[in-house]
Amino acid sequence: MGTRSNRIVRLAALFHDVGKPETKAIDRGGVTFHHHEVVGARLTRARLRELRYSKDEIDDVSDLVYLHMRPHTFKMGWTDRAVRRYVRDAGPLLDRLNVLVRCDVTTANASDLTMFEATLDSNIAGTAGVSYRWDFGDGSAYTAAYESNQVSHTYEVCGTYTVRVEATDSWGNKTIGTLQVPVSQCEAHVRYLPVVAKSP
After folding, report:
1. What is the pLDDT of residues 164-190, one digit of tens each?
2. Domain harbouring 156, CATH code
3. How is 55-90 classified by DSSP, letter by letter?
4. What is this structure's pTM?
5. Which domain holds residue 96?
6. Same domain, yes or no, for 79 and 134?
7. Statement: residue 125 has pLDDT above 70
8. Separation CA 160–CA 136 (nearest Å)
9. What is the C-alpha separation between 3 and 6, in angstroms, rounded?
């Protein structure tokens, strides 16, 4: 990676969360920064223009800021189509975006990464094909359905969150398990949510 590329990545790292103050919101789930990458890209473009960077540099840095949250969605699972879309949208910035994202995710406190496991207690003989959807209580939407009962989630702010898991068994029965999860800076967490599937 050349000198210019290094400068682009460093500028993107400097500006990548600049949109958080403007998008900060507090609700029952805690503090959120929804779409801070969109606002951040706009603010980055404006500031770099004021600093008289070249158009190409402004475009590259702003695009990296805009795209830096894309890979975070893969922590709950991914599809080939999603990866192809990520590569397509990144275009020639792919290598630099990967560097930026790698730096971003590794700067989080280890305690912010919370592991969840749902335990299914079913009285249905031969139950198979159970899928799980998760709501982590921090303002994010339910995840897509996954066959794995283990997931991880990174909380940006410490606090107590109500986590919900919706389990659907092979008969189409649905049940929801909930758990109050305290997220602190002093320890990592593994949480177990029991859910019960009922016979049809």
Report:
1. 888 887 777 888 888 877 766 534 444
2. 2.60.40.10
3. HHHHHHHHHHHHHTTGGGGGGG---HHHHHHHHHHH
4. 0.53
5. 3-106
6. no
7. no
8. 11
9. 5
